[in-house]
Amino acid sequence: FGRPIAIVGTVRAGYLCYQTRSKLVCLDTATGQRLWQRYELPRQAICTGDGQSVFLIQPRSDLVTVLRVVDGATVSKFKLSDQFKLHDQFKLHDSVKFDGKVLQASNERVLVAEPAADSGKHPDVLRVSKVGSVNLQTATVEWLTDVDPDSTIFAVGQRWLGILQRDGELRLVDSRTGEVVSTLKVQRPDGIRAIH
User: Fold this and answer.
1) Which helix (H) or strand (E) holds 27?
2) Alpha-carbon gap, residue 26 to 36, rounded angstroms
3) Rounded distance between C-alpha atoms, residue 15 and residue 13, angstroms
4) Phi/psi at 165 (nearest 5 deg)?
5) Are 64 and 56 in contact (CB under 8 A)?
6) Mean pLDDT, 10 residues at a time, over the chain (196 residues)?
7) How far apart are CA 160 and CA 177, in angstroms?
8) Torsion from C-alpha of 8, 12, 15, 19, nearest 10 degrees
9) In contact, 175 and 106? CB cutoff 8 Å
10) Nearest-angstrom CA–CA distance, 44 and 118
11) Cross-strand partners of 161
12) What are residue 127's phi and psi, to 5 degrees?
């Protein structure tokens, strides 16, 4: 029917989480036994985690729920936008609602984009002016960088972020630190909208 039966989320030495229909299930990887499950999982929820916590990111509502791996109990909740509002370099435009543009979620980190001021004029293209990293364990912004809204942003595995600028400069950014680790000049094709 064209839809996945389940989406595998966090996989660690001691546990595995997967999403199916509207629930999140956590299994013990050694025994295969179900540790816990949560019902009424939002449709577009993104699941990631580390050795201690499972993080449920709800891009539409901007909410992050931190769950304890052992029993699935809620440890804390916070809004991504609140973390960026505390950071003086990340100014949300009044005309643009923070809509949780999650670029990459891995371990205890999520990369989030601030929509460009004119992003409403281009609904089929991701136009952003800043990219930042939030540590989900500490609920803090780790780094921010400015991005030309005409750039194309894409994930490269779980550790890197690619930024292809209009002039063909390709920057590879370490998603943990925000540092540019490599820059390369490439020929950018005309009309590029996304890189997967």
Assistant:
1) strand 23-28
2) 5
3) 6
4) -80, 165
5) yes
6) 61 84 89 92 85 86 89 91 61 42 84 76 73 87 87 85 91 92 90 74
7) 10
8) -20
9) yes
10) 25
11) 155, 173
12) -115, 120
